[in-house]
Amino acid sequence: MRKIVTWSVIILLFFCSSGAGAYFYFDLGEKMFDSDSVAVEQEKEVELPPPLFHALPALIVSANYEGRLRYLQVKLSVMSRSEETIAKVEASTPLIQDSMIMLLNSYPFSQLEIAEGKEILREQAEIKVREIIQDEGVESVLFTGFVIQ
Asked: Which whole-number Å values give the CA distances from 119 to 113, 115, 130, in the listed order?
């Protein structure tokens, strides 16, 4: 009789632990240990505010390139998700324009003919805008117009 009770308890413990293991593996295991689903849930909770844009007036600079007078017209927009940052950009527009004109005049004209050169110029413009308004809320500076003549 004692052997039957002992074996019954052992079999009962085996089935309970197997059932609990299967439950955690197939149901809770996906929720508890799946880092991708946790990251997706956290991203859903943190919604970013919509982007705000401030278009700067068009800039026109001239340069002597390969013995010819060339013109560059650039239109820039500043993107941020903060109204305070956009207000700082609006208030500093003349300083930003001056800085962008100086940057464009000093930039090698030959680099503007390739995509990588334009991307480097965009990154430098973004850095300059952040320096002028002293705010890290500037998410990006975008070219909305780019004409070389």
From this structure: 11, 6, 17
Give the pLDDT confidence of 65-111 residue by residue, as tens digits: 787 888 989 999 999 999 999 999 999 999 999 999 999 888 888 88
* Beta partners for residue 74, in sequence order: 59, 146
> Fold for domain 52-148?
Tetrahydropterin Synthase; Chain A (3.30.479)
Give burial (CB, 10 Å; 0-12/13-18/19+) of 96: buried
The residues that bridge with 80 in the sheet, in sequence order, are: 52, 138
Answer yes or no: are the C-beta atoms of 43 and 101 closer than 8 Å.
Answer: no
